[in-house]
Every structure is written in structure tokens, then in C-alpha cells.
Model the fold of this input.
Amino acid sequence: MSTPDEDRPVRQLRLVVEADDYEAAVAFYRDVLGLPEQAAFSGGDGARVVILDAGRATLEIANPAQKKMIDEVEVGRQVAPKIRVAFEVDDARGTTERLVSAGAAEVAPPTVTPWESLNSRLDAPAGLHITLFQELQTLEERQALDGFGTDA
Done:
């Protein structure tokens, strides 16, 4: 009998980001945002990498109209590049303040969205445009909202 994980062809989503200022990026994401260090490796010619545990990973694929709508709701204008990294946190306001104090640029303050989350936007180290989001309702409650559900 197989376990649910044995039936999954993909075991992990790993986002690899090149950071010109490696030390600053590690300090920001590991020490300020609080992503625990899972592993770190170094090689010749000063090569270094750290793998930070960000919890459960998902891949959110949005069409251009959805991306535009999300930008309008969260920021009020088009700002996100094709790739935006989103972190679910327990306290969007407090985490936003902490990250801004550590050098992130606030693009939009925490805003309640139609999908019942509190989202902020930041430009963060390593050139990442990020969203911090705090869920204000359970997944079941959100799925009952108009326009939510699955494509299945």
C-alpha cells in the first residue's frame, strides 16, 4: 500500500533566487522573516547557497486578467512582475513593519482583499516582489464566497 506522498510525482517546489548581496538576503529572509535554515553549502570560487524552509509550497498560476485584478486590489495599480513570491504569515501588519524596518520597500500597506485575507506588498532583497498574506477565514469559508472554488 502506498502513502499519499508516494503517489506524488513532485516532492518539493524550490524557488532558486540569485542574490547579488547574499549576506543581506540571507539575513532578511532567514533572520527577519524567520524562514529556518534547512541546509547551507559552499564551493570553490566563493560559491554559496542556503536553503530556507518556507513551509508548504504551492504554485499559483494566474492568467493576465487575474494578475491585473490582484494588483489592482492589493496595490491600486499594476506593479508585479511575472513572478511574485507570497508568504503566508500569522500577523501581516507586524511582519510588514518588521520587514520594512529591515530594508524592504513597502509598495502597499496591509489591505483586506475580497478573498478575505490581509495582504501587503513589498520590494525585498534579491530583487523579489513579495506579498505577505494573513488568512482571515478558513479555506472552507473562502470557498463559499462568490467566485471561489475549483476549476475541476
Q: What stands out?
A: The longest strand covers residues 105-112. The chain is about 25% helix and 25% strand.
